[in-house]
């Protein structure tokens, strides 16, 4: 580690003001940022902790929409969202280990947009809306590639709004050491149609599988996906799995997610 200053504001307004300092960085649960600092891959001079901002925490449901505060931990989502959106609660309950789930936050995960993270698939697969301190952004516009989002400098994810679908499920093939998704697929069916979001597989990060959505719109069953596959050209290839293996897993995990949702 190295020397840096740390502030812990209690309101979103104070956090936004603190982030105006030169070389300041927001800190959510720290599950990604702290290891990054230890490796000197990032060296901000000021960390602005968001952990004391109560207005960014909590789970609520109204008029068919589940709203999660950006500072809400995975453990809280797993516990309190189950009565409203079981697929999302189950996803949160299977992120990392207990230490990660009790410190990591949905806002931090969404803002970081790790290509193998689970929450981006849930947001994109649900047609969620990401709320910041200045605007609301549709998930389709928010995620823009590996570790890249529509967030501007100093912008904070204050909440995420999930339309509650008629049916949904998330299935992931875990990398056993990290429990990140080697490939994960979130499927939902609601009033706006069928959505299929894939994480962990592509060099472009989380994305929708349009061909699968079209097939499932006609028949929401695993058999509707028979014969469908994705090209391996843009898939991640590393020591955990080749591009061809990940492409195969996309089809397998999607079928499993549809079966679980149905």
Describe the structure.
The protein has helices at residues 12-18, 33-38, 74-80, 86-93, 98-103, 106-112, 119-126, 139-142, 210-218, 243-261, and strands at 5-7, 24-27, 46-49, 59-62, 65-69, 129-132, 136-138, 157-163, 167-174, 181-190, 193-199, 207-208. The chain is an alpha+beta fold and 262 residues long. The protein has three domains: 5-49, Uridine Diphospho-n-acetylenolpyruvylglucosamine Reductase, domain 2, CATH 3.30.43; 54-163, Uridine Diphospho-n-acetylenolpyruvylglucosamine Reductase, domain 3; 167-261, 2-Layer Sandwich (Enolase-like, domain 1). The chain has a five-stranded antiparallel β-sheet. A hairpin with a 2-residue loop joins strand 4 (59-62) and strand 5 (65-69). The longest helix has 19 residues, at 243-261. The chain is globular. 45% of the residues are buried.
Order of helices and strands: EHEHEEEHHHHHEEHEEEEEHH
The largest beta-sheet arranges its strands as: 4-5-8-6-7
Helical fraction equals: 25-40%
**Biggest sheet: strands, sense, closure?**
5 strands, antiparallel
Which residues form runs of ≥5 with pLDDT under 50? Answer: none
CATH class call of the largest domain: Alpha Beta
The name of the CATH topology of the largest domain is Uridine Diphospho-n-acetylenolpyruvylglucosamine Reductase, domain 3
Average pLDDT value?
94
Counting DSSP E segments of at least 2 residues, the number of strands comes to: 12
How many helices? The count is: 10
Strand content: 15-25%
So what's the overall shape? globular
- Pairing-aware structural class of the strands and helices? alpha+beta
How would you classify the quaternary structure?
A: single chain
CATH architecture of the largest domain: 2-Layer Sandwich
As for the number of domains, it is 3
Distance between the termini: 48 Å
Work out the radius of gyration. Answer: 18 Å
